[in-house]
UniProtKB/TrEMBL annotation:
It is an enzyme of class 7 (translocase). This is Cytochrome bc1 complex cytochrome b subunit. Coiled coil: none annotated. It catalyses: a quinol + 2 Fe(III)-[cytochrome c](out) = a quinone + 2 Fe(II)-[cytochrome c](out) + 2 H(+)(out). It comes from Branchiibius cervicis. PANTHER family: CYTOCHROME B.
Length: 618
């Protein structure tokens, strides 16, 4: 049983009065905001969204051109959703047979599927239909290439490290789903080119041992091509995969908000802050403008460059194949793998044909590549023993082994991609297709090794150059002659801001080998894994160029105070005059206390005059 009691105003305590004052202040603020403020206040009182919105509006994002690659992918996805919705109003996802009597005269009287006829009508009869179709197709290509380049940026800068391993895996899933979504999309029109691709996909499924034929019958609803595949592909393309992709994209953005955005090394940038622009109003205005730039360029390309003119290919017929047909570029590496795999991988065993020459390239390649990429962050963390959180990105040159491995993978991908055009190269260059194929087969194994070695050597050379520049300054190209006839080159010292990115990185040492048995002769637990870890650590960090330390910089500063360098010191003093505008022998002579302090403290150098905002962890 509940009872109600009446409380007089004079009986209210201080907390009650304070709550009442807060409500009055909110009401006054809502009135001062006019109709918009009243609506916002009404919405906040019922949802409590003001706190979350306030948090988002104050979120700081760093400013660098490479971060726009992820934005391009997001904006392309928005364009795909908008144009895809438009196309669904006219597209008929049916393989039912009809006779074409539309506006395109060359196809009149030809039997085709309803899907193909509706696509031709969208292209040639619906006002603006062809432009929207082409925007949709170009946006799909841009979406995939933007995700790919974004993933490259994340890998080469080490943005996948703790706490972003989950976001890295989400990105890989988005990348793989984008490939499948693209294939499903360009298969829907049921023209001769897309039908050839579907026929190839069915052959890939049949190459799976034991269960291949069951998978094919399940997806196609019987024998190829059947009449079920178009409606099923339509459902997957417009409902299932978009829902998963949008969900993963949302999770990706939420994790970016939770973890903070990564940023490149620079003065005042640490693992505990973000230097950049707040979401409102600067970043929102810039992002909004960039969205319209992406949309505008996509529309411009779509209006000027024709892609996938399905009316020229004609409807799909199982007895015909489009001459010189090639898959969309993002499936080129898988097609190239099929062309390079040797024929002896197909053999008969136990009364069954095992087509590994097809299955390895068409079925196993993509999962294997994506699995290796997904495991890599955890493998690197295990090898290095690094369990710290990382919000500052690496310069690729400062992680030479990782950069070399990335370039090796890119070379492997590139060789497979070029192999997809071995027939076209043979025709255009008047070469033997067998010779081209054999060379590319060798390059699959040789190319990644060479790319790794060359890339790692280049990274180490660049690190040595950075080290020399920090200690001795930039070469000016001016040669100074002393009264005694000696010559010196004038060097310009680095300021503290330019010096910072060249010295703010870790240079881990290889782990020491731990004997498999202890001093009592007892085998250590996990000795085998420890041995492997030691070998991998040596592989990663044996060749390294340590960053310049404050002590080294200070030593370089005092180097010319030695009596043996008195003459050089005199020339250095001369070079400080206005007519020289620099100094000699490397710039380390002018290291001041502020420079050394900036090497010692990661938080120095931001200053109050920066045009950026700084978001700091409390």
């Amino acid at each position: 049983m509940t009872t109600e009691s009446t409380v007089r105003p004079d009986q209210l305590g201080p907390e009650s009065l304070r709550t009442s004052d807060v409500k009055d202040e909110k009401a006054a603020a809502a009135k001062s905001g006019g109709a918009v403020g009243s609506v916002a206040n009404w919405f906040d009182e019922r949802t409590g969204a003001a706190g979350g919105v306030k948090f988002l509006m104050k979120k700081v994002f760093p400013d660098h051109w490479s971060f726009m690659l992820g934005e391009i992918a997001m904006y392309s996805l928005i364009i795909l959703l908008l144009t895809g919705t438009f196309l669904t109003f006219w597209f008929v996802p049916s393989a039912g047979h009809v006779v074409y009597n539309g506006d395109y005269i060359p196809l009149r009287g030809i039997q085709m599927s309803e899907a193909y006829r509706s696509t031709v009508d969208i292209s040639l009869s619906v006002r603006g239909g062809l432009l929207i179709r082409q925007i949709h197709h170009w946006a799909a290509l841009l979406f995939i290439v933007a995700i790919m380049l974004h993933m490259f940026r994340v890998f080469f800068t080490g943005a996948f490290r703790k706490p972003r391993e989950i976001n890295w895996i989400i990105g890989l899933l988005l990348f793989m789903l984008a490939l499948v979504e693209g294939f499903a999309g360009y298969s829907l029109p049921d023209d001769l080119l897309s039908g050839t691709g579907l026929r190839a996909a069915q052959g890939f499924m049949l190459s799976i041992p034991i269960v291949g034929s069951y998978i094919s019958y399940f997806l196609f609803g019987g024998g190829f091509p059947g009449e079920a595949i178009i409606p099923r592909l339509f459902t997957v393309h417009v409902l299932l995969l978009p829902a998963i992709i949008v969900g993963l994209f949302t999770a990706h953005i939420i994790l970016v908000m939770v973890h903070k955005h990564t940023q490149y090394p620079g003065p005042g940038r640490t693992n505990k802050n973000v230097v950049g622009f707040r979401l409102m109003p600067v970043y929102t205005a810039k992002a909004g403008g960039f969205f319209f730039i992406v949309f505008g360029f996509t529309a411009l390309i779509s209006a000027l460059v024709t892609i996938n003119p399905i009316w020229m290919y004609g409807p799909y017929e199982p007895t015909q194949v489009t001459a010189g047909s090639q898959p969309d570029w993002y499936m080129g590496f898988a097609d190239g793998a099929l062309r390079l795999l040797p024929g002896f991988l197909e053999f008969t065993l136990l009364g069954h044909t095992w087509s590994f020459n097809v299955m390895i390239g068409a079925i196993l390649l993509i999962p294997a590549m994506w699995t290796i990429a997904g495991v890599y962050p955890f493998l690197e963390s295990w090898v290095t023993g690094d369990k710290r959180e990382h919000h500052i990105l690496d310069r690729p040159r400062n992680a030479p082994t990782r950069t070399g491995l990335g370039m090796a993978m890119l070379t492997f991908y590139g060789v497979l991609f070029f192999a997809a055009g071995n027939d076209i190269m043979a025709i255009k260059l008047h070469l033997s297709i067998n010779d081209i194929t054999n060379v590319l087969r060798a390059m699959v194994f040789i190319g990644p090794v060479v790319a790794y070695w060359v890339t790692k050597r280049l990274c180490l050379s660049l690190q040595r150059k950075d080290r020399e520049t920090v200690l001795h300054g930039r070469e000016t190209g001016r040669v100074v002659r002393t009264a005694e006839g000696r010559f010196f080159e004038a060097h310009e010292p680095l300021n503290a801001y330019d010096r910072w990115p060249l010295v703010s990185y870790d240079t881990p040492s290889p782990q020491e080998y731990l004997a498999p048995v202890d001093e009592n002769g007892v085998r250590r637990k996990g000795a085998g894994a420890a041995k492997l870890r030691t070998k991998l650590s040596s592989f990663y960090f044996k060749d390294r160029v340590p960053a310049v330390t404050p002590a080294e910089l200070e030593a370089a500063h005092h180097d010319h105070h030695d009596p043996d360098h008195a003459l050089e010191e005199a020339v250095i003093v001369q070079s400080h005059s206005p007519e020289f505008g620099g100094h000699l022998h490397g710039g380390a002579e002018e290291v001041d206390d502020e420079s050394v302090a900036m090497l010692s403290s990661s938080g120095a150098g931001s200053g109050d005059s920066s045009p950026y905002d700084a978001e700091t962890d409390k």
